[in-house]
Design goal:
The protein is an alpha/beta fold. It folds into two domains: 216 residues, Aminopeptidase, CATH 3.40.630; 105 residues, no CATH class. It contains eight helices and 17 strands. Strands 1, 2, 3, 4, 5, 6, 7, 8, 9, 13, 16 and 17 form a twelve-stranded mixed sheet that branches. Strands 10-11-12-15-14 form a five-stranded mixed sheet. The longest helix has 16 residues. The protein is globular. It binds zinc ion.
Length: 335
């Protein structure tokens, strides 16, 4: 994969034409990934990343709002902005087919041009002694705003609480941008719901603005916060047919309203799915790949029943998303 040359451009301003530029046209302004350093009153910078996934436009739109705001307000704190996977943004896809996912390249030690790019960004950000790091993403499925956080350190939880009352404490998947940044400063992945929704873009912008104005970490959440740990991700066998319609043929049947369970606790003993042809079409796997299906589910007749109280998240009925990633996660509340 050494065929691709990836360059990191450095800028000290946001181009004026951003206001009129859609995320898919990002390469007209940023032909390559870029780091933009903006100086503010407090010199310890906030790191914000956008378009780490090319079709998740919330970060780009939030930066446009920030740019408009900056026209009338001095920047209270310095910023380092990373414009991520511009090639995927141009294609309006999560990543460029056949190339690494830009949110799996941050562990260090990889040998692709994408890994080297992430290493370069990480070293620059680390050297700047960042105040906090926010990676802005969208997702599929009906989820409330929530964030991924990587330690239960109070400052990290405070950052999470500025965005959402839901915190998912996780090290999975490995190699995410926010987990790498969490080694230097409070860091979250802000999951801002569906792309293209004005309220989600506003929430992302407000988070950035709040942190820019924050003077220091108090060491406690600012608002009530539910912290969840992930028991496992639910995978559907590639050869199993799934259905979201009662009575339709398939191997495993879920309710059409499956996504409504996201971030609502499902009690032990409740039915999660129906197995129409026996077999084991659904598997639950921990972040290290351990099979924990039997810890999470039991079978009662043709029903797959939860063994413990679980809060699902990122459930989706989008079959492409399920096949490419997973059905969703099972979480337990820890705080
Ligand atoms: Zn994403």
């Amino acid at each position: 994969m050494a065929d691709l040359e990836l360059r990191l451009d450095r800028l000290d301003h946001l181009p004026g034409a951003m206001a009129r530029t859609a995320a898919k046209d990002v390469r007209s302004l940023f032909p390559e990934s870029a780091l933009i350093t903006l100086e503010g009153r407090n010199k310890q910078p906030l790191f914000v990343s956008a378009l780490v996934h090319g079709n998740e436009t919330v970060g780009w739109e939030a930066l446009k709002k920030l740019q408009a705001w900056m026209a009338h307000h001095p920047l209270p704190r310095s910023l380092i902005i990373f414009i991520g996977n511009v090639r995927a943004a141009e294609l309006q896809t999560r990543m460029v087919p056949g190339r690494p996912d830009y949110n799996r390249i941050w562990l260090g030690g990889g040998n692709t041009p994408e890994h080297r790019l992430a290493d370069e960004v990480k070293q620059i950000v680390k050297a700047a002694n960042p105040f906090a790091a926010i990676d802005l993403h969208n997702n599929t499925g009906a989820n409330p705003l929530y964030a991924l956080v990587h330690t239960d350190d109070p400052a990290h939880l405070q950052l999470n609480s500025l965005f959402s009352p839901h915190a998912m404490l996780t090290h999975n998947p490995p190699g995410t941008c926010s987990e790498a940044m969490s080694a230097f400063c409070p860091a979250i992945t802000a999951e801002c719901g569906h792309s293209g929704v004005a309220a989600n873009e506003e929430a992302a912008f407000n988070l950035v603005l709040d942190v820019l104005h924050l003077d220091h970490w108090r060491g406690a959440p600012d608002r009530p916060l539910d912290v969840y740990t992930v028991q496992g991700r639910m995978l559907i066998s590639p050869d199993a047919a799934m259905t979201f319609e009662h009575g339709a043929p398939g191997d495993i049947e879920f309710p059409a309203s499956l996504e409504k369970w996201n971030f609502f606790e499902r009690p032990a003993g409740s039915t999660f799915a129906r197995l129409l042809n026996g077999g084991t079409p659904l598997r639950v796997e921990t972040e290290t790949g351990q099979d924990v299906t039997d810890i999470c589910f039991s079978r009662e007749g043709d029903r797959l029943v939860l063994k413990r109280d679980f809060t699902p998240s990122m459930l989706t009925v989008n079959e492409d998303a399920i096949r490419a990633d997973c059905l969703g996660y099972l979480m337990e509340r820890t705080g």
